[in-house]
Design goal:
By secondary structure, the chain is an all-alpha fold. It is built from 18 helices and no strands.
Length: 416
């Protein structure tokens, strides 16, 4: 699961680090390339919503492996193309099949790990984003320099196809599919929505969407927060390499190293957020989300104000932006899975995924158009989004229940 999702990330971000070469070799503008980012984000977000519901009823092994193989194929098709129209078609297809990666992971994480340990394990899985995200800036830039931008699309695609075949052989579905007891029963660690256990067995897709998601105010608040956080995350991830090249005269490789530090910071931020929410906040995700959201605001302002000629400081700032962003990026998903029944976890996180990648789509063409007019406006948008996300997550500070409250009988069913 970890390896598979890291490779999903390679094939999702391969285009990002080919962008400077698409501008120089094929003459595309930032706005045109932003359209491709928006296309991927919209199709990916819609796919997460649709396939989230399907993912609650589908074997995780097959679902994830097939998605990875197909994303690899469409990366290769992209590399054989030269027109904006074909780029958009193939990148939209890539976005759709990228949406087959997250739902099986949410299903596996909620079925194999109980609530009291889930934040820690989820955070360890979540760093697969950062492993893939740290590899692709360096690998993509190197491949583009050595073999042209097409090679930066071919190699991640080939890696994805072989990894998908590996997942078909090695990945497994839920404990129950192997004859094992449910994890909450095995560990005597009940879920927040534990008294829905009996009526969860025959839930239709409509039941899941209406009962646990569309009428759940906590899920809607998390969706708004996820939308805002993803504008920041994707804005930084997709555009700061170009920002550093254009405004600070860094080489593409140096800029790629700085963006890699964003992912490395996210690696540590995910781990700290997950473990601290489990062991210092009694499995309550709200306080940690809010604290990390404040860190996003502070570190973004610091990065914006660093003058040209200080790549080490830029790298340090990128590290702390990544550290702060990936805390709520991960824990918002954990909270969404815990505010519904675990059999609706993929649907819930898929619903949030649609909002998240609506935010990511906003970080595509709209942010690209703003950046065309000047990078100051770009940073004003990101800082505004980070401030709004902080306000939403402060409101959710006390959402959820602690393990101590569960043990004393004070837990309530928050999703109904």
């Amino acid at each position: 699961m970890f390896i598979g999702y890291a490779i999903f990330y390679l094939t999702r971000k391969s285009f990002t680090f080919a962008m400077p070469f698409l501008i120089s070799d094929l003459g595309f503008s930032k706005g045109e390339l932003g359209i491709l980012g928006t296309v991927l984000s919209l199709t990916y977000g819609l796919s997460k919503l649709v396939n989230g519901v399907l993912g609650d009823r589908t074997n995780a092994r097959t679902f994830m492996a097939v998605g990875l193989i197909l994303t690899g194929l469409f990366n290769i098709f992209f590399g054989f193309s030269s027109s904006l129209f074909l780029f958009a078609i193939f990148w939209a297809c890539n976005g759709w099949f990228q949406g087959l990666g997250w739902p099986p992971c949410a299903r596996l994480l909620t079925h194999w790990y109980s609530r009291s340990e889930r934040g820690s394990w989820w955070s360890q899985w979540n760093i697969s984003h950062n492993v893939g995200g740290a590899i692709i800036p360096v690998l993509g830039a190197y491949l583009a320099y050595q073999g042209g931008w097409r090679m930066a699309m071919f190699i991640p695609g080939i890696i994805a196809i072989f990894t998908g075949i590996f997942l078909l052989n090695r990945l497994r579905d839920t404990p129950e599919s192997l004859g094992l007891p449910p994890i909450d029963v095995y560990r005597s660690d009940m879920e927040i929505v534990s008294d829905a256990q009996a009526d969860s067995q025959g839930l239709s897709a409509r039941d899941i969407l209406v009962k646990y998601i569309l009428t759940n105010p906590l899920i809607w608040m998390l969706a708004v927060a996820s939308f805002l956080v993803y504008i920041v995350r994707m804005g930084v991830n997709d555009w700061t390499a170009l920002f550093l090249v254009e405004t600070k005269s860094y080489s593409a490789v140096t800029a790629g190293y700085c963006v890699s530090l964003f992912e490395i910071g996210g690696f540590f931020g995910s781990l700290v957020a997950g473990f601290s929410s489990d062991y210092f906040f009694e499995a309550k995700r709200g306080p940690v989300n809010a604290i990390f959201a404040f860190g996003i605001l502070f570190s973004l302002v610091a990065f914006w104000w660093i003058p040209p000629g200080y790549p080490i400081l830029d790298g340090i700032a990128m590290f702390f932006v990544g550290f702060s962003v990936f805390g709520p990026q991960m824990l918002i998903g954990v909270a969404a899975a815990e505010f519904v029944h675990k059999k609706a976890a993929a649907s819930s996180t898929g619903f949030l995924g649609w909002f998240a990648y609506a935010g990511a789509a906003t970080a595509g063409w709209p942010l690209g158009a703003i950046a065309e007019q000047g990078w100051d406006g770009f940073f004003v948008v990101l800082i505004t989004c980070s401030a709004l996300s902080l306000l939403v997550l402060l409101y959710l500070w006390n959402a959820g229940v602690s393990r101590e409250e569960e043990e004393t009988g004070l837990a309530t069913e928050l999703a109904t």
